[in-house]
Amino acid sequence: MDINKALLLCLLLIPSFVSAHGGRTDKYGCHNDRKNGGYHCHNGGSVPKPQSIRTSDNATRTTSAKPQELTAQPASSQVREANLAAYKDLVLKTQLALNQLGYSAGEPDGVLGKQTVKAIKHFQVDSDMAVDGKPSYLLLEVLLGRVG
User: Burial code of 13-40, b = ≥16 C-beta within 10 A, e = fewer?
Assistant: First the structure.
């Protein structure tokens, strides 16, 4: 391959490497972008848009373009509620473990407040962990290893 073809190939591939990034995407190649805000798709991926159809009684009904197997999945609000419940449970268990170890995380209520963040940071410093003050399953595992 001559140098001109190699340079052309590099120029064509570099933008895709620059715009691509790691992270979780759904099956459509889309994700929530916290840095730039909003939900977007890569590589031309698009979420199927609802379509309006007429039923036999002349009423307009909106249907999804998603395959039939996807209609059984829970609504996004149910997923959001499940994620919120799991996060609250993680924070509650973290608070309980911190309090047992003598780090004052406050009343164990599952809410990440200033006192809990401060207790997490103190524990992370004492345990030679990266200090970010955020609850995680890794942090909880370390905490429970010290409690048990």
Answer: eeeeeeeeeeeeeeeeeebeeeeeeeee
Please report the DSSP string for 33-94 in residue order: -TTT-SEEESTT--PPPPEEEE-TTS-EEEE--S-GGGGGSPPHHHHHHHHHHHHHHHHHHH
Give the SS3 label for residue 32: strand
Q: Report d(CA 52, CA 60) in Å as an integer.
A: 6
Q: For residue 30, give the H/E element and its range.
A: strand 30-32
Please report, for residues 29, 47, 74, the alpha-carbon distance to residue 71 in angstroms, rounded to integers and kept in the order given. Answer: 19, 14, 8
pLDDT in tens, 45-96: 444 444 455 555 555 555 444 444 444 555 788 888 999 999 999 999 999 9
pTM score of the predicted model:
0.51
Q: Please name which of 77, 79, 119 lies closest in space to residue 102, comparing C-alpha atoms.
A: 119
